[in-house]
Every structure is written in structure tokens, then in C-alpha cells.
Specification:
Elements: H1 16-23, H2 26-47, H3 53-72, H4 83-107, H5 112-130, H6 134-151, H7 159-184, H8 198-222, H9 229-254, H10 259-265, H11 268-281, H12 287-302, H13 322-330
Helix pairs in contact: 2-9, 2-11, 3-4, 3-8, 3-9, 4-7, 4-8, 5-6, 5-7, 5-10, 5-11, 6-12, 7-8, 7-9, 11-12
Amino acid sequence: MPNSGTSPRPASLAGPIARTVGRMPPTSFFLTSAVFHYLGPSLAVLLFAHTAVLGVAWLRITSAAVVFALWRRPWRILTAANRSRRRVFLALGAVLAAMNSMFYLAVDRLPLSTVGAIEFLGTVILAAAGARTRRNVLALVLAAGGVCVLTAVRLSGQPLGFAFAFANCIGFMLYVIVGHRIANTAADGSDSSASSMSGIDQLGLSMLVAAIVATPFGIVPAVLCFTHPVWLLWGIGVGLCSSVIPYVTDQLAMARLPRATFALMLTLLPATATIIGLIVLNQVPTLQDIAGIGLVILGVAIHHDPSERPMYPSLRSSRLNGAETCLARLNPPASMPIPALQPHRDGEQAQTCDRRAPR
């Protein structure tokens, strides 16, 4: 075909909503997640007065699963998923069911800020494993010190509550690890940089698995809510605030942030838990709590890595190599001109982009 000097612009793989999301900074997704991560549980604590704890946990998980099913129809990705990816979906579903149940059993016995701080302790390990600069090590030290000040953990008084809190901590670590796997890998095992919704679809499928796992021990305590429409709507709202909004924004943040950066930013969660506990549950923080919050925020502010800013919204800059450069040329931004193709000289072979980007 003769070359006219211009090439038609290829159809974008992402819709207008996905392109808008791609232009937003990843920190905006995390901040949204940080607010709803504890706003939903605080509303759940108020619902405990009417419904058993595991019943509220089941309502949260199941309502979120229904939303994902209606919104994304995530079972469609099963046809492209191999056996290894299906095991990832099952694992994340089991983690979500156990983590949410342990968290609610803990906040039924301990203040929200205490459970939130214990939940954070596991992420310190993840962040420390990925911190490679002195500045990031200092940030970790400050954040960890803030959590120690904020928590002041005393195992006497509510040992069962602390057991549930530390079990939730382990579950949250697994959620961060497995969540990054589905955020950065498509259902068929390939790189997911070309599809910003791939991680959300996989999350939705995992949430359906979580609902199945939680049903045997959660549906009976939740039956009472079906006779009280207000309680039922309350439980659905808990699911939206706890498992839909924060998990979706988590996926959007995970897809554009290295795991260590995401784990370090999670240090904001104890501070968020304390503030929401004050506003919603009237749990007044002490001066010691405020000092801990200040150290945590300072640690997050110090952490910085200029190489993390993506070159294109759909590509992670720290991993941009030859193969991903080819992908960028095949799917350039709308404002990026497409150069005319030049004919190859005799005896020269066309260069191909057949290498997959390392993860």
C-alpha cells in the first residue's frame, strides 16, 4: 500500500473512562482507598449492635461480589486463564474471606486504630524488603516508630482480639502480595499494561470466590438482616465502602506503583483509622496517638523515587524496556504523532518486538 506520509490513528485499547483514570496520579487512588478502607468497617462496627459479626462480614463480601458480578461479569476471564492463574484467583478469594472475617472479629473487641496499626505491621516487612536507598530506610524507620507510638500494644485484656488482629495482619500482607500479581498480570498470564481493567476483573472473580468461601459460616448469622430492610441496606453499604471502592482503587494504585512504594504508603492507614474512629465511633485519640500519626505521615512524605513516574499512563516507567517500547509505538497517546513507515533496504530484516517484558 503506498505511503501517504500519515498513518491512521489506531483504535485505543482503553475507553474514555480508562484514559481519564490513566491521567490521574496513583496517589489519588490510594488516598481514596485509605478513607474508605476504615470508613466501611466503622459503619460495620455500628451494625454489630443488630447483627452478629460474621453475618456482617458475609454481607460485606457478598454484596461486593454482587456488584462486581453486575459491573464486570468477571467470569468471562476464566476462558483465557490457565490453571496457574485460576489458582491465584482461588488463593486471593480465600485470603479476602479470611482477612475480612478476622478484621471484623478484631474490631469487635479492640479500637479501630489499634487494629489498623497492627494491620500495618506486616506491610513494614514488605516495604523494608523493597527499600533500596537510605532515604527510604529513614522513611521506614520513622513510619515504623510512628506505628509503635500509635499502637502501644498490650496483649493483656483482650488476647483473643489481638489474635484476630494479627491473623488479619498476615492476611493483609498476602492481599498486598497477591493483589500486585493480579494488578500487573493479565488473566492469561501476560503483562496487563495494555488493559487498566484487567486487575479489577480478576479482583471481581476473586471476590466471587470469597463469597462462596464465607457463605458456610456467615449466611446463618446474616439471615436476620433479611427481615429488616434498613439493616440489609446498611450491610450492602458496608460492602460498597469496604470491599468495592477501596479494592478497586487499590488495584488502580498497585498497577502504577511498585509493591514497596504501595506498602510504604499503607502506613497512612493507622492515621486514617484513628481519624475515622474519632469521627464515626467517638474514639478520642490521645497525645501519644497524635504523635504517632505525625511520625507516620512524616515517613511517607520523606519516601521518594523519581523513577516511578510513568512515561505513559498505561505503562510503568521503571519497567519500560525494548518490548514495552514497541507496545508504546503500537498504541501511542492520541497527541503523539505516528511516523511514516520507512521501507527496508535490500538484505535487511525488519526488527521485531517478540520479547516479553520482564516483570
